[in-house]
Specification:
263 residues, 2 strands, mainly alpha
């Protein structure tokens, strides 16, 4: 437990230095590498296999992955459609270019690498070590807070969020993390649903922001500051709550076998 906490503190300090001082910007990538390698090393030193970090055999893994992907790909566009209907934002398509397609492709690879790291570390490692020492609820909440705080250097230093928006961002990410944590526990401690949902969520936002110009028609307190929209606004908190409720619902459907006649 102590070594896990120390690993997290070291990585958080590296991220702070990386965002504070351009000369140390390489620490942003290095810190994530150290984080995942450290988590795997500590996990194995406790005589546990890597597959137990969330990749052990589960006969429903394809369904879990697919449901995570589908759920996020429905929720994110639904958010934008709702915002358009309520006149909160205006979306106008950008002229298509080859550079946009290349950016999207490279972005998807980057997103996959980041979400795999985050899911293995926070749901696979931190959630489980706190769960084993305390309880499922403690594991879910603590890992979610740690995951949210990992974004603090980016939000506070690089994006320069105000204290109000920073607080909303932390709340939003914590609630979202709780949803992913519940997905992890309910899918028999596997990461397939979490990876599918997390990837599709980030990729959907990348697609929309790459191919559309977005004009916000409401104050920042509602939608959040531009670099962290909607996470740093009131809508972000509400949307995170919707994510949490939808995860609980979909996990119930998967458990009861109502997502497929074969289950």
């Amino acid at each position: 437990m102590i070594k896990a906490v120390l690993l997290y503190i070291i990585v958080l300090i590296m991220l702070l230095l990386g965002f504070l001082y351009p000369i140390f910007s390489f620490l942003n990538i290095l810190s994530l590498i150290i984080l995942i390698l450290g988590a795997i090393l500590f996990w194995q030193r406790d005589e546990k296999s890597i597959t137990e970090l969330g990749f052990h055999k589960n006969e429903k893994w394809v369904i879990l992955l697919a449901m995570g992907l589908i759920q996020a790909m429905i929720l994110v566009p639904s958010l934008f459609v709702s915002e358009i209907i309520l006149n909160l934002v205006t979306l106008l398509p950008k002229p298509f270019s080859r550079e946009m397609a290349i950016f999207t492709l490279l972005g998807s690879i980057r997103i996959l690498a980041i979400i795999l790291t985050e899911e293995i570390v926070f749901r696979g490692y931190y959630l489980q070590i706190f769960k084993q020492k305390y309880s499922d609820k403690v594991g879910i909440v603590v890992s979610s807070i740690l995951w949210a705080m990992l974004h603090f250097p980016n939000m506070f230093i690089e994006s320069e969020l105000s204290p109000f928006h920073l607080l909303l961002g932390m709340i939003t990410l914590t609630i979202w993390g709780i949803g992913l944590g519940i997905g992890f526990i309910k899918s028999q401690n596997t990461l397939f649903f979490c990876i599918g949902f997390h990837f599709a969520y980030n990729f959907s936002f990348t697609l929309i922001t790459t191919f559309f110009d977005i004009t916000r028609n409401v104050p920042e307190w509602l939608l959040g500051q531009s670099s962290w929209t909607p996470e740093s606004g009131i809508i972000g908190v509400v949307f995170a709550a919707c994510i949490l409720l939808s995860v609980v619902l979909i996990m119930h459907l998967i458990e009861t076998g109502k997502t497929s006649p074969k289950l």
